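User: Quick one: structure for sequence A, then sequence B.

Assistant: Sequence A:
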Amino acid sequence: MSTNAVLSPIERSISTRLALVFALRMFGLFVVLPIFIPYASGLPLGPFPFLDINSPHTSAIAAGWAMGAYGLTQAVLYIPYGMASDIWGRKRVITLGLLMFAAGALWAAYADNVFSLTCARALQGAGAISSVVVAMVGDTTRDEVRTRAMAMIGMSIALTFAASLIVAPVLFEYIGMFGIFILIATLALIAIGLVLSIPFAQKNTPINGRDSLKTVLTDAKQWRLNIGVFVLHAVQMAMWVVLPQRLSDLNMSHSNSAWLYFAVILISMGIMIPLIIRAEKYGKMHIIMALSIVLVGVAQLGLAANIGELIGVALALLLFFIGFNVLEATQPSLLSKLTHPSTKGAAAGVYNTVQALGLFAGAAGGAWLNVHFGALGLFIATAALSFAWLLMHLQKTTAR
């Protein structure tokens, strides 16, 4: 393999630090997932507007709002953060976002009612730095190795997700939710130190913010990738509407389910890395992406068929995570290659906004499908969505 196809020491150092920044922030979002709803449901409601305090469902609805509030502010701010980083620099904007994330965690630690907790979570979400970190990876790596750098971030997110599910109940038992939120704020400050230690000076061609956004929003190639990430994360969230209950029906406890996710993610990463290296070395990125989309779709069909009970679910999860992890690395890499250096932040902002909308659509749509058509209908729908995406991808590849 040519040395040009290997991450240089400086590229590896910067990519590792950015992957750690991503992981530290995502840990703060993931670690509360298994314990948040019971905790929030036990707090007083507070001055929550638009909710009927006499309804028996009010507490559960308010807890759900508190849990998901960060997603709304993230979706709103991804694009402004990305555009701001094109103008004022990546490191400054990432630092600002992490400070807001830490402030939100501290507020949440001291929140004594659900309304206050919801506002704190919204402030956490206002630290929407994902698009800026992705843009910074694009700034600091060469085209031929960028997918591997993006894969490092994807791996850090996947491992953080699995690990957080395992450690969350233990942390809650020993330090409580107050201690967890203090830990989240501390990790955000550590992430700031990592960002400031990166030897990086951004060199952008000045561009008007309105022109920047217009350029990004009218690029058909970028929108194909945006649609792809929407589908990928909609399918992911829809799956998890049903999977926890299915595993519970198979007598899998929460902790055992977390270990299953962890094992499947580790194995999928061992398969993903050779696929990405081969795709970069031989210029087969579009073929590997098509194969990965097929794996996501086949996983949905496997879950719909419900064959083999636990072994069948584990195999379907493995296929899904192989495809998911490859696509999580390759799509942002291709986006950065398609984008002018002065609009990388704006492009990543749009991409991450559409991704966040996919998460919402998958959760809401998956719940609706499950209520009306059951798990079978849900997984048939996610399979159909995956294969529709495959057709779009193959049309793009043929056009090339």
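Sequence B:
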Amino acid sequence: MIPDDPGRRVLAPRHRYYAGAIVAALVGIFIAVNIPSVLGQAGSRAKAPIRVGVMHSLSGTMAVSERAVADATLHAIAELNRAGGVLGRPVEAIVVDGASDWDTFARAAETLIVERKVSAIFGCWTSACRKTVKPVFEKHDQVLFYPVQYEGLEQSPNIVYTGAAPNQQIIPATKWALDNLGRRIYLVGSDYVFPRTAGAIVRAQVAALNGAVVGEAYRPLGDTDFAAVVADIKAVRPDVVFNTINGDSNIAFYHALRDAGITPADIPVMSFSLAETEVKAIGPALVQGDYAARNYFRTIDTPENRAFRSGFRPRYGDGTTTTAPMEAAYFGVRLWAQAVTEAESDLFRDYRARLLGQSLKAPSGIIYLDPITQHTWRPVLIGRVRGDGDFDIVWSSGRPVRPIPYPGLRSRPEWQEFLESLYDGWGGQWAAPGPQAEGGT
């Protein structure tokens, strides 16, 4: 037997019991006070909303087109929330009015990314706007889902392009028009980077196909004076007019055409930024018989499109129409949600790899996000305006078309030089100054 160390104090069994009880009580108090707080904080974080930005022009010259695209984005978010949200969390949309001013868009993007900590931003319409905000997204390594057809000549790791590239709209429509409407083309557009670049693409293609561009005119965004342009069209008498006017300037342009006695039976118009929303604003009677090249029309007969159309009625009313940019905005939200769910994180750095190669059944058909270009595979459609404001589809690619952002009509360095000449010519802006142009004078 080992004798007790006289320098060591040993507690009696009764004393050891009381000491253990005191310790257990203190631990219990700590758990009772702190664990609910810790669990509550964790639960709060788990259920906190995932914030996203919705950034469109709700006022100004572009509102006639963009307001409906913002509605489509919010509709997709509402559907996600009715189904339980994303990662078990509600999606909170922070809506910003870019006011048809691209500097306002750039400031808004900075605020949404830095201060509001959004998971993604859905927005912009004009390429001048997109090009102005692009450095903001690249600086902060955040993502913009861009839903509008555009001129191409761009690839950014921080932009998902859900609208059409040139080979998914401009190039096939030019070929179809030359084959079906005539070989003498007149170009008219708003004076910024998309219409100017579209014009350059069309000129190169028409020359290669032995057609002729017999006139070309551009007016500032928001301009309403098309009298001289229409007078020139009437004098030149092209076979077809290619229209890349954007925003509410389309209303003035079509009124000027009809006031001059120019009808679709006389000189048809092929539009690249005209959809059901703009037809409704202009008045279907003024547009009936003209054409548009898109990737979606409201008249597509698929179960997904019927659900897409009917889903708008409770929120926006029976008179609401749907358009190609609206569809692209809608499925852009769905692509984002799928990637976030697969990554189990709403942070772009975590879900960006999951975005690449995403696919889904959209209202227009199967959509696939190309992992090389971050553009979507899209069907190509040409429609003719009906008296009720909808489109009869007169031509379809029949399948999704792989996006090619850089047309082979020039080399990449030549296209870059072309873009730089536009930017420098406009004094370091992506559009010509005008009384109502985005960015002001």
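The chain has a mean pLDDT of 89. The first strand starts at residue 50 and ends at 56.

User: Thanks, that's what I needed.
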